[in-house]
Known about the structure:
By secondary structure, this protein is α+β, with helices and mostly antiparallel strands. It has two domains: 1-32; 34-128. It is 44% helix and 26% strand. It contains four helices and five strands, in the order ααβααββββ. The chain has helices at 3-27, 39-50, 56-65, 69-78; strands at residues 52-53, 80-87, 93-99, 108-115, 121-128. A five-stranded mixed sheet has the order 1-5-4-3-2. A hairpin with a 5-residue loop joins β4 (108-115) and β5 (121-128).
Amino acid sequence: MQVLQRVGYYMGGFAVGLVLLAFFLKGSDTEIPSCDYMPNARVLKTIRNKGYEISPELQRLMAETAVDTIQLNRLFREGTVDFDKSQQQLKPCGIYYIKSPESESKPIHTEVSICEYEDKVTIKSIQMD
């Protein structure tokens, strides 16, 4: 068997393996591992993985300002954390200020409290600009 045939068989098997891997990962509810090593990405991923709670007062404020959970989910996916305003070293819960992407028509700024030992993230305030 020539070298070119061996490379062809290898590439064919590798391609079939990638297709099967993509099929199995797409069918499961696991999040595909990503390179979230930067602080901004790590904070947003923590919020997405833990989930968040919205208090009744904050729900009223959201109804008044026409902010919905779709915008909040987008904020927690694409937003940027303002570490200058954030107080991440507070114990037991760090406070993070998250800004919506610049491309959004109605910018949102959110104050989020992340506690190390709690299952949920608490949203403290929402501000519209």
